[in-house]
Automatic annotation (TrEMBL):
Keywords: Cell membrane, Membrane, Transmembrane, Transmembrane helix
One Pfam family per UniProt: LPG_synthase_TM
Statement: the UniProt record of this protein carries the keyword Membrane: yes
Protein's recorded name: Uncharacterized protein
Gene Ontology terms: cellular component: plasma membrane
UniProt topology in membrane: Multi-pass membrane protein
Amino acid sequence: MHNHRTILINLAKFAIPVGIIAYLLYRITPEQWQALTENPKNYPLLISALLIAVCAISISFVRWCMLVRCQGIEFTMLEAFRLGSICFLLNFVSAGSVGGDLFKAIFLAQRRPGKRIAAVASVLVDRGVGLYGVVLLAAGAFLVYRVDPNSDAYDNMNRIKAGTAVVALTGTTVLMFLVFGGAMVDRLIRWGSRLPVVGGLVLKIGPPLRMFHHHPIAFGASIVMSLIVHSMLVLSIYLIARALYPSVPTLGEHFVIVPIGMIASALPIAPAGLGVFEGMIEWLYHAIPAVPTNASGTVVALVFEIVKLVLAVIGIVFYWTAGAEVRQSLEKAEHVGEGVETGESDEG
């Protein structure tokens, strides 16, 4: 029964993304297909989009390496690129059991047994900084973008705008409090550690998160790097659109459209945000542009997914050439992931 259950879970990991992609292709109208096939393709722009995406993902690996080192964990840049590439692959093909973050945390915890909580903290902070960067980018774009009152999406866009502002302000307040809060935060951690039920968790997680108090420059640099990463991804998607269609939303409008799509795709709904990202981009391609366009947001987003697939090939190469330590961590992550999915736990 356990083997059959594992086989079904593994089949679902690949069937779900395939089903989502098939549904997205089905939703593309005949007119959109005709416009796509008739328009000439600019392949140099597509290659440029790929190279920019590669640079963006590479910067994200450098950011993670820096955050890991802030936790006092020995970590080389080569390891960051090797593991980051494998994690990128796992995030794309996994329906949730062996996500890249789980693999990162397990590998670092095995590398430094005495720093297991710090290892997990570095992964959580890296994910948080990445999400915070895209929220800041969306908030900044909304500062200069004005929603057309005559647009059918006026009310919804104002709600998204207000929600983005609240998330950005809340995230900024929490981060500034953790990094620059000083002795008051330390006192709160000590007080929280004495609380029933959650006290032990606060005692373990609090100090690693506070470690960035001693590295404010590195932490600030990680936020700047996150802004650069997402800005480059916006540019990559814009170039894809320009390569496929003669008339597309402007680059400035893409700085509103793409971050909102990325925020939506960060929700744990589908593997790698498949379907959510494409649906949001399609809606925003009609709601945002001041000048209507016949470009399909779904097609542009799907081509961007193909770009990500090309990037995932790099992860496959690193996976094939992985050493024993990396493979052991992958097996451990698979074991933990299956335990979560089947409702079993590993007490060891």
